[in-house]
From TrEMBL:
UniProtKB keywords: Cell membrane, Membrane, Transmembrane, Transmembrane helix
Keyword Transmembrane in annotation: yes
Organism: Oryzias melastigma
TM segment ranges: 34-53, 65-86, 151-169
Protein name: Sodium/potassium-transporting ATPase subunit beta-1-interacting protein
Main location as per UniProt: membrane
Length: 208
């Protein structure tokens, strides 16, 4: 019963991770955030493998999924530090998330709740000719805090997934050990009835 409830909970957590990361993947595609796109894609594949291992009693898949969650949490901590500009990090850097392939920022920068985007007809001389120059105002929440909230959700789901993955691997291993013990006991502890001969020897008398 414990293994069933643990597996069901882990399967639910994997489902929540898939839904949340797919939403995040769409947003990152719209914002041309290439580093998060690649990382999200890898995360989707590993979560699917972890879900498969959970359903099919494959502890190696679940163990690999748990190990990846440590990397995934580390990545999301970095994203939080990046958008909050911890240390020398700057969210205006083009190299970190877009591989310096574009000047795009987070999709939430222009499409956050309540944001009003105004196109400036006379951009400054330093602005590239093939880019538009806009002004953003009246946002109810700045884009960096929305990104921090998304990464925080991923960390919470990954932490719950890691705990339940370790729990499920432990239960599956215990069940496998108990099955091996019972199988070995049956192999040597019971022997079927053996056939016995019903022939009896009768004495012979010889007449003179």
């Amino acid at each position: 019963m414990g293994c069933c409830s643990g597996r069901c909970t882990l399967a639910f957590i994997c489902g929540m991770q898939l839904v949340s990361v797919l939403e995040r993947q769409v947003i990152d595609f719209l914002g041309y955030q290439w580093a998060p796109i690649l990382t999200n894609f890898l995360h989707i594949i590993i979560v699917i493998l972890g879900l498969f291992g959970t359903i099919q009693f494959r502890p190696r898949y679940v163990t690999g999924y748990a190990a990846w969650l440590v990397v995934w949490m580390t990545w999301n901590v970095f994203i939080i530090c990046f958008y909050l500009e911890v240390g020398d990090l700057s969210r205006n850097s083009d190299l970190v998330l877009t591989f310096n392939l574009s000047m795009h920022r987070s999709w939430w920068m222009e499409n956050g709740p309540g944001c009003r985007v105004t196109l400036i007809s006379s951009p400054p001389t330093w602005a590239p000719a093939d880019h538009r120059y806009i002004s953003i105002s009246d946002c109810l929440m700045d884009f960096q805090f929305i990104e921090v909230a998304h990464s925080s959700l991923q960390i919470l789901l990954a932490l719950a997934g890691f705990i339940y993955a370790c729990y499920v691997v432990k239960l599956i291993s215990e069940e496998e050990d108990s099955f091996d013990f019972i199988g070995g006991f049956d192999s040597y502890g019971y022997q079927g009835p053996q056939k016995t001969s019903h022939l009896q020897l009768q004495p012979m008398y010889m007449s003179k």
